[in-house]
């Protein structure tokens, strides 16, 4: 008996084996592509986690954004949810005034105006973070807030309370 006769007699078996071989090859390719896809997802997840770890949120500002009738001798305090090097932040106040910026403690920065703020004036504070970190929900690593002064000095109010 030659091979052709064996194949003709067992035609159904050979067709079944050919289908089985095709299915095994498809299963092998599916498994390989699934592993590649999972590796890509893991890389994306790791990148997202790294970005989330470096996202900085402004916890509080004093005065609060949009606050009115703030004291004329008010210091501006910015509190971040994580520590940032003082050298990596830059501050701007509009209208322009001279101020001293100091890092008080972990994530807390104080801007002390060198003179009292003007009566009934809206001030806009902008600070920017250089480097890899970003502020959450902002663009270009900038954070903005504003407040409006009233017509009183904190020191005068405190003196009147203690009298």
- Pairing-aware structural class of the strands and helices? alpha+beta
* Low-confidence runs: 48-52
- Strands ordered across the widest β-sheet: 2-4-7-6
**What is the residue-averaged pLDDT?**
82
Number of domains: 2
CATH architecture of the largest domain: Sandwich
CATH topology of the largest domain: Immunoglobulin-like
Proportion of beta-strand residues: 25-35%
- Care to count the β-strands? 10
Which outline best applies? rod-shaped
Give the helix tally: 3
Sketch the topology as an H/E string, one letter per element.
HHEEEEEEEEEEH
CATH secondary-structure class of the largest domain: Mainly Beta
The termini sit apart by 122 Å
Helix content: 25-40%
What secondary-structure arrangement, pairings included, does this model have?
Layout: H1 3-9, H2 11-54, E1 55-56, E2 58-62, E3 67-70, E4 76-80, E5 89-94, E6 99-105, E7 108-113, E8 122-129, E9 134-135, E10 142-149, H3 154-162
Parallel strand pairs: 1-9, 3-10
Antiparallel strand pairs: 2-4, 4-7, 5-8, 6-7, 8-10
